[in-house]
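Predict the 3D structure for this chain.
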Amino acid sequence: MNRKLVTAVAVLAAALAGLVLSQQEEAHVSSPTPEQASARQDEARPLARAPGAPHGDGAPSFLHMEGEEPEGALRLEGQVIDAEQLPVEGARVTLSTVPARTVLTERNGTFSFERLPPRMYTLQARQGSRVAAPVEVRLMPTTEPVILVLRPSVPVEVSVLDARERRPVEGARVDVEGHEDLTTVTGADGKALLQGLAAGRHVVRASAEGHAPERATVFHSPQGGSATRVTLLLHAGAPVAGRVVDEAGQPVSGASVRALRADSALPESEGLLEQVLTGADGTWSLKALPAGTFRFTATHAAFAPSLSEPVTLDGVRSPPSVHIVMRPGAVLSGQVVERSGAPAPFARVHARPEGPGGLLGTRHSALADANGRFELNGLPRARFKVEARGERASSLPLDVDLGSGAAEVTLRLEVEGVIAGTVVASDGAPVTGAQVVAIPEDRVARWELAESRIGRYASDVSDGQGRFRLQGLAPGRYRLRASLQHSVRSSAFWLSTGVVADVGQEDVRLTLETPGTVRGRVALKDGQAPEHFSVALSLSPPVEFQGTQGTFVLPDVPAGGHTLTVLARGAAPRIVEGVRVEAGEDKDLGLVVLEPGRRLAGVVLDANGAPVPGASVLAGPHLLGNGSQPGPAPMRGQSDEAGRFVLTGGGEEALTVMAEHATLGRSLPLAVAAGAASDSLELTLRPLAGLEGTVTSEGQPAGNVAVVAAPRGSSTGRFMVVTQADGRYRFDRLSQGEYVVTAALREGSTGQLLQSVLTQVDGRGAPLDIRVEQGTQSLPIRVLEADGRPLQYAQVYLSTGPLRAATLGQLETVLASRGAGQTRILLLMNGQPLTATRLVPGAYTLCVVPVRGNLDDPAWVQRVRDGASQLPVSCEPVEVGATGTPRPVEHRLPSVPSH
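Done. Predicted structure below.
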């Protein structure tokens, strides 16, 4: 998911997750919840990244506009070796230039890249089934050779099925976005193996003749476990063609046309289904697209990005020609200089749209030339946040308005903080080739770093004496981590505690302790070993095991305390806390027994009360779907010939159950109380209908905004789409009934503004426009503990009208039931006072969800995440007058137990 949309992964729960998971936000991959991990055993579904997670996790960002780099004078060299320290000949090494460059290693394992400008690069290497953890290195004249270590890895097993008949598709092409050489073809069983894929998040794509292509996100752990499995369902598709012209009607040659799912919850590569270049006459064509509503976007260096009107396809017939009109783009040019005013050569310049007018999810970047000059073309005429990062320093963000079509700016590299030191082994010997990363210790600064797309973090690789130097840091304290075994793209990198250092400190000592191993054996209550299960360490993505007779081994586990989560179909999740691993220890947990999961049974009925065979039934604590389908879910099944179904699995938490049939419709979400088992659930299908409209704020279209539709009263069965640049959204398939539809806008780096309306979804297709109301009043808020001390961390709700709730779960239910209204969600960090701005006068309710505990303890964070609905809430009424300055609110919490 685009980081700008973390505001609405679950609308009301996202900000809380952002707070309690903020120590994980530096990780490049998000940790799937247990229900997401279990659902992955059925089929791949797009998963959201953790709020605030830095970008760059292996899956290419949607619409990253970047021109070819200027030629430099530097050389980057290194060597690829195996786990026995022997050189590897013929390994494929890829460097993250634009475009990417690839070489094969020589007989002695060495490689080199010539004529490079100085900047941060990512190096990756693989050979067959062996892969090296990607290394990020800052290239300077003094950069030493980089060592890449190939280790055996498990493959990604891709199953490609025909969506209608659920039969294997033979001869389907399977590839990985961003890895042009990683391509394979499915066999007669519809399966293909992708070898040599590094740890992290990847987008896998499958295509076959007569079918529309499909994509899925994969979280891959190449060390240990069984193959990572993903299933792609290919639907029938129809050709789509069109033409791109300028305002005068003249053809635009060489424009890139992309097909975007209008009902996608993800404005990134998962929402991008296919792309092609226009010919000399401006025409373009795509071989096959499935049923659904699409927008087609065109980008070109001489024009602003443009969108087509929504096009609804049936997957069988080709629609009329799709017309895209491109308008003149804006040009941003300028100079990057050092603090002294001297030109800063080869600085990286990033620009991201900040308001209406930008195309969904775009970011633009370029490398300045040897004289520090840069130019970005083809930008939308919108407001931008512009930043630069050089070899030793970075600039402060600059607001630029490109409404006139052009701007000339100067970016001064004046953020020059440094932290330096040495990486050593347990015996004090220097460690060469360790990846070292610094993340702000202050969570507010961490959120601000997540806002910026320019640096993500400061990084370096230790040299022959173990020395590292992190540059371009803003003042403050940072947590430093280092690893030899794991890339920063692997969540395992972030499990180590690291050390804290202040900017200016140049004697930091980072000790790399020998990683340990965790092993054990999993068995069901009857003593049988599950055929397929997964094991997750702390908040890392799960490692899957199949056919191992229940045994599991997790290698390269950082020393320290961990929490283990074991999942298997039909069993309740097993959480093992307090797993302490010493440096170099081989920790055997012995037998881990899984208790039987809950049993839910019932019948699926049509609108007339007749049983429905062949309906999909799914259940989970939260079901968050996109504009056309529900899910994902840990418990899935299908109704039999009598319409009966049985689901087993899951823990004791409250569950939401839903049924769907391809032609007869979908049921409303049915809530099942915590701990309850039932044999008499009735799920009645309702006809489906679409819902579309436009979101506006301050009279302008609001693009890049999450829109969530939930049947009134349901806070756990919802559907989410994202507005395009013109503020338009669409749900293709909603069961008919009364819905609360919410637009979730960002306010700053940590705030959200939720505007909800109540509507009836029926077959008439009347548009639902959402106007986000903005006022002029501001309300200062201070939250105190019962003894008068400032509360350090909390999620704060300011909602229109009267509300009453004792827990977060109750508050979510109240907000889901009331219908129309507005809610602001703010994160209280470090005890700092808050200010709610742009308020409309009227009656409000202030609700505070205190978050007490060690936010740096993954075990505590996991407990809070899993039990968030039970967090206590303290509320009080607040009045915002129409005139004058509102009186500051000082909310004092009652004495409550620590959570």
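The two ends are 30 Å apart (CA to CA).
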